[in-house]
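Aim 2, interim progress: modelling of the guanosine-5'-diphosphate-bound target.
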Amino acid sequence: MTIQWFPGHMTKARRQIEQKLKLIDIAIELLDARIPLSSRNPMVDDILRNKPRLVVMTKADLADPRETDKWIAHFAAKGLASVAVDANTGTRIGDIASKAKELLHEKRERQRAKGMNPRAIRALIVGIPNVGKSTLINRLAGRNVAITGDRPGVTKGQQWIRVGSEMELLDTPGILWPKFEDQLVGYRLAMTGAIKEQILNVEDVAFHAIRELSGRYWDALSKRFGIEQPPADLDDPQEIVRVMEDIGRKRGCLVSGGRVDLEKASGIILRELRAGKLGRITLESPDDL
Ligand code: GDP
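Predicted structure of the complex, ligand included:
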C-alpha cells in the first residue's frame, strides 16, 4: 500500500480515527518492536487523547527480546501498558484481550455496581502503514477479514469482529502517518520495510543499516556475511562503504573490473535484515533516551 501523506490526507486520517474513537472503549496502538520510536505517529497522544490505550509491539519475533523487555518496562514507567506479539503466528496475541480487560476493569466494575451489564470491550487498532494492522486483525479474528480501508468520509459499513468472548474489534483499522521530520527516522522505517525504498535511495538505506548494525550488532553482521573487519570509525563514511563492499564481494556482487555492485549488495543487506536472517535485531533502545 502506498499512501502519499500530504497535509490534507493527515487531516482526513485524523478525522476518521476521531470518529471511530466515539465507538470504542480502548485504542490499540501498534508499534514495530524493532523501532518503537520511529514507528510511532508523532501526534498519536494528541489524537487518542484520554482514550484508554494499550500499546502492542508487533514483529517481536524479529526484535531483540532483551530490548523488547526494556521497552515494556519503559512504557510501564510512563503509565502505558504494553504487550509484544508475533502477529504472523499469533504468538502472545491472547495477551491483548486480557490486558484490555485489565485496563478497563474499574470502569466495568462501576457499571456493574450501577446494575449495568457491560457489553464486550470495543477496540480499534491504529498504527502506521505496514506495522501489521491487517495481519493482527486477521489473527485475532481467526479468519481472513476483507479489510477495505476507509473511503473518504465513509465510516458506515464497518463491522465488529468478535475476539474471544469479551472483546470486539472494528474491522477497519485507523491508519496513521509515520514521522517525517527526522532523516534517521526515515532510514529506520525504510530498513524495516515500513516505507518503500523507492522513496529513499536503496544504497543510502543500506549505508545507514550497516552503520547502525556495526554499532549495535557487529557480531550478527560479521557472522551472517562472513566479514571480519568492523569499521574503524562509525562516523567515517568510507569505512561504512568498505564494509558494504566486503559484503558485496562475499556475495559475488561484482561488475566489470572487479568493482563491487553496491546497489546489488545493498538490496541483499536489506532483504536479509528484514527477513530476520541476521537474527533478532532492535534498532532503538530505551537506553538511548
Ligand atoms: P498494515 O499495513 O499495518 O495492515 O500491515 P500488514 O498487516 O499488511 O503487515 C505488513 C507486513 O508485515 C506483512 O508482510 C506481514 O506479514 C508482516 N507482519 C505483520 N506482523 C508481523 C509480525 O508480528 N511478525 C512478522 N515477522 N511479520 C509481520
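The CA atoms of residues 3 and 9 lie 9 Å apart. The mean pLDDT is 93.
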